[in-house]
Amino acid sequence: MNFSGIKGHEKQRAFLNRLSRSESIPHAILLSGQSGIGKRMIAERFIKSLYCTGEHKPCLECSACRQIAAGSFPDYVLLNRDEKGKIPVGLRDKPADGTVRWLIEKMTRVPVSGRTAVLIDGVNTISDAGQNALLKTIEEPYSEAVIVMLSEGRSGILPTILSRCMDITFNPLADQDVTSILISSGVRESTAELIAAMSGGSMDSALRLKDEKVMLGLLDFAESLTSAVKTGNSNRLFVTESAGIDDDFLLTVLVNIYSYNLRVQAGIRDSILPEKVVPDAEDAGRIVKILLAIRRGGSNNLNIKNMLKGMLYSYREIDASLPVSTDFSWL
């Protein structure tokens, strides 16, 4: 398969390449892993390869490849998240475009090419009712079909769905891959390396961090958090209101920064982060535990900054021990 321009995930790409040439492609495939690491790009290349008429599939130039890219290929169905970040179920009698029931109705039609390809970006955001509605279609498609589903993780997916999928797990991009992509887009090498350290292997995060105000605002917050921990004074926690730094992004980058610090403390790599944001090993472990606890509470729409201040009061009572992994995919 032609994966030109895509960095990382060599094993996953090689597997999908073999799969695309197989005569028995499973009708349900799950690509799982954190956002912004290239799952969708790879999924789109895989789907294009199924219809491509070029010599080196996907050629990206033939009529089928261009139509799939434009979303106009008759046997390709894309199901995206709505403005709320969810994929809605839709009404049974009159399903609106972009809903699960709309997808199910589309898949009852006879494909022109003999096979329907579906890409569901965010299957973990579909409610249990929506996943149950989709289950029968996954088990027994009305016609020849390949359903590729993308997810940030498995926790939001029903076991009945998972058991019927071929699950291909994607790890975060390596720092050197993120750095290389940033340098090719005109970012200075030193800045690209710093952004890569803060991005956690996600190009979505890396591209947002290209904004200098955003990057510096996040480093200022991390510096204030490290200072608050070292001094035991939560009043040192600087609450940034910089544009482009919402609570979710703030939490994501803080987890990246302090898990990177854990790798540094474990001797896995040298630090390129500013010294003022680097705590000792025990403090890094406690901070990561706090951040992960806040992440679990994020579904309750709790204010991250206020939660950080509150949890710092009982900071020293937190067990600092954490498992150490070279890629920190457990985060």
Structural overview:
With 331 residues, the chain is of the alpha/beta class. The protein folds into two domains: 10-169, Rossmann fold (3-Layer(aba) Sandwich), CATH 3.40.50; 211-317. It has helices at residues 10-20, 39-51, 63-70, 100-106, 128-139, 159-162, 175-184, 189-199, 203-209, 212-231, 247-265, 281-296, 304-312; strands at residues 28-32, 76-79, 116-121, 145-151, 166-169. Strands 2-3-4-1-5 form a five-stranded parallel sheet, with helices on both faces. Helix 4 (100-106) links the parallel strand 2 and strand 3. It starts with 9 loop residues before the first helix and ends in a 19-residue tail after the last helix. The relative contact order is 0.10.
Notable features of this structure?
331 residues, alpha/beta, Rossmann fold, globular
Layout of secondary structure:
Elements: H1 10-20, E1 28-32, H2 39-51, H3 63-70, E2 76-79, H4 100-106, E3 116-121, H5 128-139, E4 145-151, H6 159-162, E5 166-169, H7 175-184, H8 189-199, H9 203-209, H10 212-231, H11 247-265, H12 281-296, H13 304-312
Parallel strand pairs: 1-4, 1-5, 2-3, 3-4
